[in-house]
Design a protein that fits this description.
It is a single chain. This protein has helices at 15-34, 73-81, 119-134, 152-160, 169-178, 189-201, 256-272, 282-291, 302-309, and strands at 38-39, 45-46, 67-68, 87-94, 106-115, 147-151, 210-214, 236-241, 244-251, 295-301. The protein is an alpha+beta fold. Strands 1-4-5-10-9-8-7-6 form an eight-stranded mixed beta sheet, sandwiched between helices. A two-stranded antiparallel sheet has the order 2-3. Helix 5 packs parallel to helix 6 (189-201). The longest helix is centred in the N-terminal third of the chain and has 20 residues, at 15-34.
Length: 326
Amino acid sequence: MTSDPNLNWKPSAALNVLQQRARLLAATRKFFKQHDVLEVETPILSCGGNPDPNIQSFITAGEDKMYLRTSPEFPLKRLLSAGYGDCYELGKVFRQAESGQHHNPEFTMLEWYRTGWSWRELAVEVVELICFLASKTDKPQLQQWPIDWLTYQQLFKHYTKLDPFSASRDEFAALAKKHHIHSPDNLQRDEWLDFIMSMIIQPSLPQDGITIIHDFPASQAALAKLNPENRQTSLRFEIYLGQQELANGYQELTNAAELEKRFLGDNQKRKNQNLPVVSLDQHLIAAQTQGLPECAGVALGFDRLLMVLTDCNQIAICISFDSSRA
């Protein structure tokens, strides 16, 4: 890729990659048609945003501000609450301050929900989708990759010898020093866990394997239910394809009062971090008050999946025009 600004009118992706992308988009829709999951389109602009302090939204100008969606999660759950059943969306989402080798502020997300399913059943279907799409590429061998299921605690103990639930921040700092990794100052506990995950554990995952990590700390539940068998953990999972973080899923929180409590807690965290407070999605709260059915949901980064299946090492190579050429 060239850095010459006079050539930035050119696409960032090669033609053969865009052709493969088109084939995989079509294959994804075929997969869900075969599995009787309805494709829907939901609003890209919303009056309410995602208050998660780790996610920053783009906001429109003017008196009546609106948020560009960071995922289609909230309107999809409203469809579920209205009784529309299993559904998915494959489309663009937007996040500020996310640019780099594996990030672009505008990217394609695949998100779907299964009513009456457990998160484990959904994780199996995610792997089934990955293998189905791999069969349409030059990497059919990916279908034979081993699948490793690890709890968050097992993962940390295996790769760091530390227990994520009991280790001190001093122990986390000593681990970073041992690996010759400079860490930011004054990291809080969850920030340490995320830092170690991205800087030490993720680069150590098997390159030719699928890793399913589950039972995340309750403090990182997001909108997942807490684990009734261990309240220290939540019914949240992530799937890594090789060393690429690919999908994030939950046994979905259905209690409306708990949903609003978590939203308010996230906004308080934003205040503490001097981040702008986000207007809550009252439509979603009303929908869950009406009744969100028991379900499991997952969001998958389509561009990242394409990176692995086409052996691209930059997300920019997998999209027509990355942010520097938009």
